[in-house]
Write a structure and sequence with these properties.
The protein is mainly α. It contains eleven helices and five strands; from the N terminus they run H-H-H-H-H-H-H-E-E-H-E-E-H-H-H-E. The chain has a three-stranded antiparallel β-sheet. It has a two-stranded antiparallel ribbon with strand order 1-5. It is elongated.
């Protein structure tokens, strides 16, 4: 579109995201004529591509809202939150909070949490590969050493928590013959052993433990946090699931 040096780039990008914005001054086609029609076509293609990327990235939200409602929200979202990276596979990071704060969605308070789980699944899928620890390493550690150790997780490992049945909602809208979700709070762990991430329900204590460990706390401190919400928390149970999901990459003694 003509000489890019003659066009204010800030106005160009703003107009690109807002269909109602005027054509940037100085924008001409290869023949030197005002590029109004060409720019509108380009602007529409960009908007459509971003909206398609959002619906591809949040298929459950798309299904819950329906095509027309999702399309309207996606148009608002892409105008307010343009991509910050050319990697469109990760477009939509702010979408969960966008849904939570949208006044028209106040009667659907679970949408933001479901979207957060969908985005966590996407992060897990695209995360770098890692080498899991050998479970035999655990057998070489004394209990005191294990309690004083910090755990490192695979980049694909994710934890989501919600006051709503996010996993049940996700399965009901993604998996054939899945049962209807039961109204309850749900805590979800996402692991990836091969190519596709696998979500599974965990307990409240498990979620608190895993988030504490992910923050760099020792196992002893993480267990204290878990026991504060789940008195009879079973660490052995969640440890087995972490090992089976190739979620642990390193255990290191602190101090």
């Amino acid at each position: 579109y003509g000489d890019s040096m003659s066009v204010d780039q800030t106005h160009f990008h703003e107009a690109l995201r807002d269909p109602a914005a005027p054509i940037p001054a100085g924008l001409v086609d290869p023949q030197g004529s005002p590029a109004g029609r060409r720019f509108n076509v380009y602007r529409n293609n960009v908007t459509t591509s971003l909206m398609d990327a959002l619906s591809d990235g949040f298929p459950v939200i798309f299904k819950l809202l329906g095509q027309d409602n999702f399309k309207n929200l996606a148009r608002e979202y892409q105008a307010a939150h343009p991509p910050s990276s050319p990697l469109m596979m990760m477009f939509g990071a702010e979408f969960p909070d966008f849904l939570r704060s949208h006044s028209r969605l106040a009667k659907l308070p679970y949408l933001g949490d479901v979207a957060e789980m969908e985005y966590a699944m996407r992060r897990s899928y695209h995360a770098a590969d890692s080498i899991p620890i050998d479970p035999a390493v655990l057998g070489t550690l004394a209990e005191s050493s294990l309690l004083a150790s910090a755990f490192k997780f695979a980049p694909s490992f994710q934890v989501c928590t919600s006051a709503w049945p996010i996993l049940g909602i996700w399965r009901f809208n993604s998996v054939a013959d899945a049962p209807k979700p039961t109204p309850k709070a749900e805590y979800v762990m996402i692991t990836r052993t091969d190519f596709d991430p696998v979500p599974e329900e965990i307990s409240h204590g498990d979620a608190v433990l895993l988030r504490s460990l992910a923050q760099g706390k020792t196992l002893e401190k993480a267990l204290d946090s878990a026991h504060s919400v789940e008195e009879n928390h079973d660490f052995g149970r969640i440890l087995q699931r972490l090992l089976a999901g190739c979620a642990l990459t390193k255990i290191e003694l602190k101090g």
